Amino acid sequence: MAKVKQLTVTCKNRPGELARIAKVLGDAKVNVLSCLTTTSEEEGATYLVVDNVNKAKKALDAADLPYGETDVLQVELPNTPGALGQFAGKLADKGINITLAYQTSVKGYKKASVVLAVSDMEKAARVR
Q1: Kind and range of the H or E run holding 114
Q2: pTM confidence score
């Protein structure tokens, strides 16, 4: 289980915002490993885990895209029914709250990648 940096880019809720963010990062040769975009009313947020945080921050700064940076867990789980529930249950048993989660998996692949923002990063990093 790895502790990684998550960048949260704030934007307007309108067509093209994710395309703009992704183009800025792509032009800077930053690979997006995980992504979640949410919206509420007129505002939006894109949560990103990337392969090079420093290059991403420089590119976002140059494009005048506001962002925040937080530590999150990136966990590989078996790509099987119940794996996420089992792991989330282990966190709950330790009193750890999950405040944000997003997962990517592909049918037929053995592993799923899950990004978790949690209430106690240090304790969560020790859960197996």
Answers
A1: strand 111-118
A2: 0.90
